[in-house]
Amino acid sequence: MKIVDIRHITVPIQSDMANAFINFSKMDVSVLAIVTDEVRDGRTVIGYGFNSNGRYAQPGILSHRIIPRVLDSEPDTLVDPETGHLDPGLIWTASMRDEKPGGHGDRAVAVGILDMASWDLAAKLAGISVQQLIAERSPAGIGTANKKVWVYAAGGYYYPDRGIDALQDEMKRYLAMGYRTVKMKIGGASLADDIRRIEAVLSILPDGATLAVDANGRFDTEQAVEYARALEQLPLHWYEEPTDPLDYEALGIVAENYTGVLATGENLLSRHEATNLIRYGGLRSDRDVLQMDSALSYGFTEYQRTLSMLTGYGWDAARCVPHGGHQFNLAIAAGCGLGGSESYPGIFEPFGGFADGDEVQDGFITLPDVPGIGLEEKSSLAPVLAQLGNSN
Amino acid sequence: MKIVDIRHITVPIQSDMANAFINFSKMDVSVLAIVTDEVRDGRTVIGYGFNSNGRYAQPGILSHRIIPRVLDSEPDTLVDPETGHLDPGLIWTASMRDEKPGGHGDRAVAVGILDMASWDLAAKLAGISVQQLIAERSPAGIGTANKKVWVYAAGGYYYPDRGIDALQDEMKRYLAMGYRTVKMKIGGASLADDIRRIEAVLSILPDGATLAVDANGRFDTEQAVEYARALEQLPLHWYEEPTDPLDYEALGIVAENYTGVLATGENLLSRHEATNLIRYGGLRSDRDVLQMDSALSYGFTEYQRTLSMLTGYGWDAARCVPHGGHQFNLAIAAGCGLGGSESYPGIFEPFGGFADGDEVQDGFITLPDVPGIGLEEKSSLAPVLAQLGNSN
User: Fold this and answer.
1) Where residue B96 sits, what CATH number does that domain have?
2) Above 50 in pLDDT, residue A392?
3) What one-character DSSP code corresponds to residue B306?
4) For residue B104, which residues of chain A lie inside 8 Å, CB to CB?
5) pLDDT in tens, B76-122
């Protein structure tokens, strides 16, 4: 068994929306296919991967460094002798040859794209869903994958010329889709305006539904604490990324001034940074939420090590709710017993969202039970994958 | 005044050497030119930049994100109204538009390349050396640039089939060139073998000459402390990067077990990571050495902010000795009063080293006094720059 080609394309997911830090008018995604010489039921076995939104496609690093190293490897060095299958961990190690420590940025995204494809491939080779492969074989797995995963609807971006009515309508749509928790952006307006926006959304939530708010790392310490004091008065699900993702000291000061739930981690692209968050960020393992996203941070191969680190510090996997809104994080959540997974209904399409036929019910979503991640089960995504070579 | 083009090429600097972490057989560098519509003495004014060794060329991020943003900017937004000149800080801000916080890796390298070219350009437009421009205009500048800068010879890599005699000969060559401090790699052999290599080099050093050792982030905490206890017995200039660059806790434990000088920072690619090093790394401002390299970490535009952060924590600029061995860091050292700059005699050519005619004397090197960085004053580098368009 060997890899015969690794291909990738760059696909736009542009939008006119903005969070407190960036706008998404030039956002794009790399989609990658690992093509093997294996044939199952008359079809070539191919693993697919892509990056989450927010960090751009990686055509350069994939072509220049990551893919050549894997293709130049002796094929046997990528195969697990026990299973006889191409192995995500071995592919990962090959892809990182001659990379220096530190500097976890776009490289972490590029490797995350490849690693998603490796796990999709490994599950297809094993003939089971990736959530079940993870549950059975990963040190972070829970034995039998959960059948459904908690999801929340992340939206509420700032759009040009959009008023509070449109924001309320957006949130009502999410509730109608079956979500019980919605999230909106803050920090792109004044505190007074943001409080008005928040109260307007709270006013239309039915009993039991909740609202989270997300500042996207926008605030300095003083602003973050000012917001914390105002937000503390409101019944929020969580207050997300108040300060720069690497300013652990500032986060700790916010934690001292906010008894509610804090959430952060989507902009920590390595387990080293996640470790420092736990060591220095002042977060509380009884309530706070960790959002590291494997598809932006060296893949699930690395995320397993992050989960192991968390266990060592007394954090439960249930405190993790990854950023990203893609099917792979949903599968990881099901296989590792995470607390849930983000979802962006209707945006970042076709990469966000779920397989056709899986619907949100009372805040939970089921997963496809097919070999691999089930990306081909999403009719909007299948044509993009087909551009890279089709296993169906 | 406006930018008419930004071009870049990828140039190999491969070598068969290795440090404790990577080998350099596929290493390469991006070289970039900012071409303006300004003409001085009949020549188009062009600023040049490149990245330091160790982190690879950045053709993808430059072409995909960084350069288009600058070229798409309204020309006037890149010009300082006071000087009427293209401004490094304004070009920097344009290049980082719509980038999320955190994730400081290859993006920091790509911006560092552009920013070196911006400063070369700014100094050429001002008609003075970049060290003098920095000394006069940067908040981190010392008013009048130093005429000479302390340098040390970094080498002593692991090569296939190379014995201790060849290592000693290499160090003797550096001493003959005028260096008074040499550096060698450790951590690629056993502790006993490394101690033999170190003692062999110490045995050939004349009075007053010193030896530093560099583990390139290879060790876990236990190994790093084991080395610290052994190295403490030897008269070393410094013990460099014992542990992973982001493992501040491990570094702090090493610091508790080593009274000699520690040096680190080349793999911290942002001021945020440098801040965390100072907050959590246990380093001592009376002796330890900080090696952050502007050409790998968002350029001098960001490095100014790093120096300001250090001042706030009571660290003197003289404690900084940047990694990289290139002329721009040498100029920054002269303009900001840093403690010195790294040098790699004969390797990473033609990007390392000094302008023609400047020679090391008693451990110090002079700088060219020409407009810009003086990259064109290095005859081995000039033909590479000429491929991008020649201002001479």
Assistant:
1) 3.30.390.10
2) no
3) H
4) 103-105, 246
5) 999 999 999 999 999 999 999 999 999 999 999 999 999 999 999 99
Q: Tell me, what's the pLDDT at A391?
A: 54
How many residue contacts between A and B have a Cβ separation below 8 Å? 143
The span from the CA of B295 to the CA of B323, in Å, is 9
Q: Do B246 and A107 touch (CB under 8 A)?
A: no
Tokens of A300: 């699930």
Domain that holds residue A163: 148-385
Q: Is B172 a known active-site residue?
A: no
Q: Over the stretch B223-259, which tens digit does the pLDDT of each residue have?
A: 999 999 999 999 999 999 999 999 999 999 999 999 9
Pick the catalytic residue from B8, B323, B326, B378: B323
User: Are A45 and A91 within one domain?
Assistant: yes
Across B26-160, the runs of DSSP E, i.e. the strands, are: 28-40, 43-50, 148-154
Mean pLDDT of A189-212: 97
Find the catalytic residue in B8, B85, B183, B185.
Answer: B185
Q: Under an 8 A CB cutoff, do B98 and A25 touch? A: yes
Domain membership of residue A13 (yes or no) is yes
- Residues B236, B347 within the same domain: yes
CA-wise closest residue to A212 among A125, A151, A294: A151
The answer to whether residue B121 sits within a structural domain is: yes
- Marked catalytic residue, from A8, A124, A185, A237: A185
* Residue A100 sits in the same domain as residue A228: no
Q: Which residue of B has its CA nearest to A217?
A: B101
Asked if A279's CB is within 8 angstroms of B100's CB, the reply is no
- A332, A303 contact by CB (below 8 A): yes
Together in a domain, B94 and B181: no
Residue A257: how many CB atoms within 10 A of its CB?
A: 16
Helix/strand/coil percent split, chain A, to 5:
40, 20, 45
Q: Assess whether B378 carries a catalytic annotation.
A: no
Query: Does one domain contain both A211 and A103?
Result: no
Q: Are residues B182 and B284 in the same domain?
A: yes
Over residues A319-346, the mean pLDDT reads 96
Closest CA to A345 of A152, A215, A216: A152
CB contact under 8 A, A267 and B101: yes
Quote ipTM for the complex: 0.96
Counted domains in chain B: 2
Are A311 and A225 contained in the same domain? yes
Chain A neighbors of B216, CB-CB under 8 A: 100-101
Residue A267 has its nearest CB partner, among B21, B60, B103, at B103
Chain A residues with CB under 8 Å of B100 CB are: 21-22, 54-55, 216-217, 267
Answer yes or no: is B61 within a domain.
yes
Q: Which of B343, B363, B251, B242 is nearest to B293 (CA)?
A: B343
pLDDT (mean) for B33-42 = 95
Confidence at B26, pLDDT banded by 50, 70, 90: confident
Contact B106, B270 (CB under 8 A): no
Residue A390 has pLDDT above 80, yes or no: no
B214 shares a domain with B159: yes
* Residue type, position A357, single letter: G
Query: Per the domain annotation, does B387 fall within a domain?
Result: no
| CATH assignment of the domain containing A233 | 3.20.20.120
- pLDDT for res B159: 86
**Secondary structure string (H, E, C) spanning A84-151:** CCECHHHHHHHHCCCCCCCCCCHHHHHHHHHHHHHHHHHHHHHCCEHHHHHHHHCCCCCCCCCCEEEE
Smallest Cα distance from A389 to chain B, Å: 24
Q: Taking the model in full, what pTM does it have? A: 0.96
